[in-house]
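pinned: reference chain
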Amino acid sequence: MSELPAILNGYENDVDGLCETGRIFWQRGWSVGTSSNYSVISSRDPLELIVTASGKDKGRLTRADFVRIRADGTPVADGQPKSSAETLLHVETAQQPEVGAVLHTHSVWGTLLSDIYFEQGGFEIAGYEMLKGLAGITTHDHSIWVTIFDNTQDIASLAKLVRAQWDDDKHPLRHGFLIRKHGLYTWGKDLNEARRHIEIFEFLFECVVRRLALTGQTPSIALS
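pinned: its C-alpha cells
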C-alpha cells in the first residue's frame, strides 16, 4: 500500500475503502477509463469530504489519489491533487444528514436508461426483490422513481437542480439519480451501504433494459 499523504492522516480506512471500491467497480465495468468519482464524509462539523482526484484510473487508485475538501468544494490545504470536476455534486449530496458516502458510476445500462427516459424526467422500477437492497425498503411490493437530470459541464448549476429536487413533492430524491448519457449517483449512510446501492441499482438497470429488449416495449408502455 502506498504512503498516505499527511493531509489524510487518520483517514486510512476511508481512503483504502475507496481504493477497493474503485477496483471492484472497474472490474464490473462500471468505472472504466478515468470515469466515475467517489467520496466519503470525513467530518460533519465543519463539513469535509475526501473525494477522488480528477483523471485517475479507478481500477488503480492509490492513497495519493484523493483530495480532502471543504463544504464549498475547495481543498482543505494547498498541494493536493485537483479534485473531480463533479465535486460540487458530492458536496450537495453530503448536505443531507443521512449521507456518509457518495458514489458515481458510468455503466452501460444506466447510461442507456438515462437517455431513453430523459424526456419523461425519469422512470419507475417496481416489484423486484432486489429493491430490498436499498435502505428503508423491506418488501418487493414497492416502487422507486429514478430522476434523470440533463448533462451539462456547468456543475454548479446542476448541483442547484439536485438541491431543488431533494424534497420535491412528486419525486423526491431518496436513493439515487441519473445524469443523461452520463451515469448514476447514489449514496448511503457509509461506504458499505453506498456500494451496496450501486450494486442494486446496476442489477435493476440491467433488468429494465433487458426486459425492454425481450418484450419490445417502448418507454411509454414500460412506465404504465
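why pinned: The two ends are 51 Å apart (CA to CA). Strands lie at 37-44, 47-52, 66-70, 101-105, 122-126, 143-149, 176-179, 183-188.
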